[in-house]
Write a structure and sequence with these properties.
The structure holds 2 protein chains of 2 kinds.
Chain A (H helix, E strand, L loop, with lengths): L1 E11 L7 E6 L20 E4 L5 E4 L1 E4 H9 L2 H6 L3 E6 L6 H12 L4 E6 L5 H8 L4 E5 L5 H8 L3 H12 L5 E6 L8 H11 L4 E4 L24
Parallel strand pairs in A: 2-6, 6-7, 7-8, 8-9, 9-10
Antiparallel strand pairs in A: 1-2, 1-5, 3-4
Helix pairs in contact in A: 1-3, 3-4, 4-6
Chain B lengths: L2 H11 L13 H10 L3 H15 L25 H9 L11 E3 L3 H7 L1 H18 L2 H30 L3 H9 L8 H18 L2 E3 L4 H4 L1 H10 L4 H14 L18 E5 L11 H13 L5 E6 L5 H12 L6 E4 H10 L4 H5 L2 E2 L5 E2 L7 E8 H15 L7 H22 L9 H5 L4 H4 L12 E6 L1 H17 L5 H9 L6 H9 L8 H15 L13 E3 L6 H4 L32 H8 L13 E6 L8 H14 L4 E7 L1 H9 L8 E3 L4 E3 L5 H8 L3 E2 L3
Parallel strand pairs in B: 1-2, 3-4, 4-5, 8-9, 9-10, 11-12, 11-15
Antiparallel strand pairs in B: 5-12, 6-7, 13-14
Helix pairs in contact in B: 1-12, 3-7, 5-9, 6-7, 7-8, 9-12, 12-13, 13-14, 14-27, 17-18, 21-23, 21-24
Classes of the chains: A alpha/beta, B alpha/beta.
Chain lengths: 229, 694
Amino acid sequence: MTGRVFEIREFTLHDGPGVRTTVFFKGCPLRCQWCHNPEGQSAEIETMTRKGGEKVVCGRDVSALELAAELAVNADIMNESGGGVTFSGGEPLAQTQFLLELIPLLKARGISLAIETSGYAPAADYQAVVSQLDFVYQDVKLLDAAAFRRWTGGDLSVVLANISWLRNSGVPYSFRVPLIPGVNDDAASRGAFAAFADGSKVEYLPYNTAAGAKYPMLGRVYSLGQGRT
Amino acid sequence: MTERIKSLLERTFDKEQAKFRRDVDWKPLLERFVAEGIGDEARARIGLEEMLKAETPAFMDGERLAFLRTVRQIPDLHTDAEMDARRAAGTAFGEKGVVFNLTADFAPTIRDGLGARLGEIDARLAKCRAEGDAEGVDFLENARLSVEAVLGLVDRYRVEAERRGLAEIAATLAHVPLNGARTFHEALQSLRILHYAMWCEGEYHCGLGRIDQYLFPYYEADIKAGRLTDESALEELEEFFIACNRDSDLYIGVQQGDNGQSVMLGGVTRDGKPAFNDLSRLCLKACGELKLVDPKINLRVDKSTPLEIYELGTELTAKGLGFPQYANDDVVIPALQRWGYETEDARDYSVAACWEFLVPGCGMDINNIDAVSFVGALDAALRILIQNHKDTECTFEDVKAEFFGEVQRRADALVRKYRHVEILPGSFVSVISTDCIKKARDISKGAKYNNFGIHGTGIAVAVDSLASVRELVFEKKLVTLSELVSLLDTDFAGRPDVLAAAKAAPKMGNADARVDDLAKWLIDFWGHAFDGKKNDRGGVFRPGTGSAMYYIWHARDVPASADGRLKGEPLSANYAPSLDVPVKGPVSVVRSFTEPDLGPVCNGGPLTIEIHDSAFAMPDGVEKVAHLVKFFIERGGHQMQINTINRETLLDAQAHPERHRHLIVRVWGWSGYFIELDKPYQDQIIKRVELAAS
């Protein structure tokens, strides 16, 4: 089968140890209003229009074998530096069947694997993928179900169930909290995140001030940007 | 950093030393040279004598290492008319004609003192007189006077220091450089004076060489004797490094900062043992604390170098200094041996100024005597081809063959042009270079090694253009060859589809075999373009992958190129991806650029990459970049330099230079202050591909 990706970025710095390549999967079940990769939300292949009118096709289909071969080109430096491949998106778990095909191909080449996930996926998918990985960056965006639904459109209980499983899975992980001004960056929220982590590692990611830049390129409006400068 | 060093650093950066300077009109001296028909060697010596006589001892508050320039201008030794006449008579010169791009053999004179050199001169002089060797006598007499001129200024400094109660300086100058240095401090003071004197003699791009090797015995002895600690050694080094920035705005270069004050650290000793030592470590630390453009640090590494040393180097990269520049012993030493350097000398290599490999003391190589423009050669080749053949008759192999032929013709022309080169003499630099006194000949007459280096400019643009020709003309058949050539003259006017296809064709730097095979082919034949050719000093021609300033100059001479570069757009500097092309990232760049065998093109010329400064915002950014450099070396890369930049910062610096006085960038083979560069050089850096932006 084929998977759909919108970017493969080399030498990424924020996605795990060592020299890594990050694969951005296209398509996400959530609609976080602060999303800084809006081109990763739709599972459809889209056309982005850059300033000046240049059109860029966003998204391509690739077989697991092709993608594994493409990523394995850098296996030497990844392995030498303690790096590897990180799956990101979009939501990589939205393409679980593809991942299940891809993962063994990469592991066969000795490549260490990590994922950045919202955790918004069926428990069976989550567990099938995560149990095979070397590290998980698990997003924690909001801890209140109503707020979660309001800002992301999703059902928090799905995420919480997966996190409960993760805590006992034995797979190394770290929580990642994107701090969004006016959404979850107040002291009370931070306290709640720390309590939720319960001793596990938490990384707070500063709000990406360039987050809104890609929306107009997709002909969309950045709702979080309304009234902001 | 101590308070004393901090204060010296700030005042030097603010150019407090400029208050001591005055202008001297040297025209009467030049007129005298011409009127009296004075010879080259005597002019060099008299020029140095007059220059040093015109100097006034001056001291900055708080300094312990003396000597600074108080006269802005160095005497011109020849009129333009004289030089033009010589050129017209068929003599070629390298750049200004004088000794340049050279690192003297400082170690023996720091060790023995100039007094020992005077003794050798006198002994040799007696022999020359007995043998009736007039040329030898002439050289040695000038050499003696040049040493006396240097010692004369030293003594005036000593007297003035004493008068001002600067007892330590006075005591140091009472001993060095007349005698051999006894301490690390004396060694640094001696080095400062010898280096200073070279600039006063008119030499330029004077390198410092392997200071961590030749200063190490003094450091080690002082540490053992308890006279020095690592803290006090660091302070000494920092003061010396600050001194390298004191007069540098008076030094000659194409751009401010282009002064060739290079230092080489690490590598192996002359007998092949690992040479990176505690002093190498201190040198890196000192540079990291000072954050100045001089001296420019080079670091020799090989496949056995541990990651930790790369990390020490990368700490400087992370600070945005544009150095260290790395050189790979595994590639460079065998390359130098193939060109005839003896094994021990090859192991002792440093860089001349930017990146051209040189053996200090015994190399009178002119490492950058000229350049071949690959972009120009390809343009010419395409035009020759369409003139002589119908489009339908041409294959891509014909394009390659014609290009190969054109590069070879240009290489051959340079061999003819530089077969006979004269170098203007320098008495004092000869005294502190290997074997000149023994041979009783000025270094300009030839040293142990007399090779000439030829740069190759625009490798990536030429390779990308070839790939584009192959794809557009011969594979997709979007245009014919003659149509493409006419489009190059009009910047692709009326054919945006061809321009877009040219830009979309494979580009070097993406680990893409469809273009990397062409790079391998080009570098392979370039590496052998001068095989068997010699200059009349017996030296060989060494091809390289450097560009020097030719990446700006050559870009003015060519129309648009087949890769989609429009007329007037600059070329990439040295060995680097074309400007503004999409690349996957730094790993692919390293992979592509280490596909060719780089041994035959080891004149120098680093892979030059730009890393976005955000790479170092993460705590493990240094480790990751260190791995990248190590990867380059392990894959057989010859030389590498990394610029840490941020396009927004550079644009802001153009708009508000006053806010960015400390902003350092790597230009072509040296680090300079961004705001002091001319705009074309600034703009070229802004257009370089930022890698690892996040």
